[in-house]
Task: structure prediction
Amino acid sequence: MLKVLTLNIAHGVPSIPIPLPFLLPRRRLLGHLDRMADLLARERAEVVALQEVDRAGLFSGAVDPLERLATRAGYPHLLHGPHLHLPGVCARGTALLSLRPLLEPEWNSFEADRAVDKGYVMAAVEELEWVSP
Result:
C-alpha cells in the first residue's frame, strides 16, 4: 500500500491571513516549517504533495522551505515546479517529496491561461515488489 499525504504549507506561514514569510522573524518562520516537518516525519507517507511552496529568495526571507522540510522530515527525493519564478525574488509553486526516487518528473504552469502562480507537478514512483507472507 502506498501512503500519500498532501499539505498546503502556505509559504511556511500558516498562522497569518496573508502569508508573507519575509515579514516574519527568521526564527519564527523556521519554527513553522519545523512543526510541518515534524508532522511529515510522524506520518511517514511515501509521497507528499505540497502546495504554496517557495525556494530561497527575497519573498521567502532567504529560507528554502522545500529543502528545510525535505531534510528535517527525512525525504531524500524532491521535485519543485516553480509556477511563478522571478530569479532572486521568488520561486513559488507546488512540490513532491518522496522516500522513493521520483521518475519522469514534470511540471507545468497555467500562466498561459491565467496570470497567477498556479500549476502542477507530476512524477512516477517505482512499485515495491510484493513479497507474499
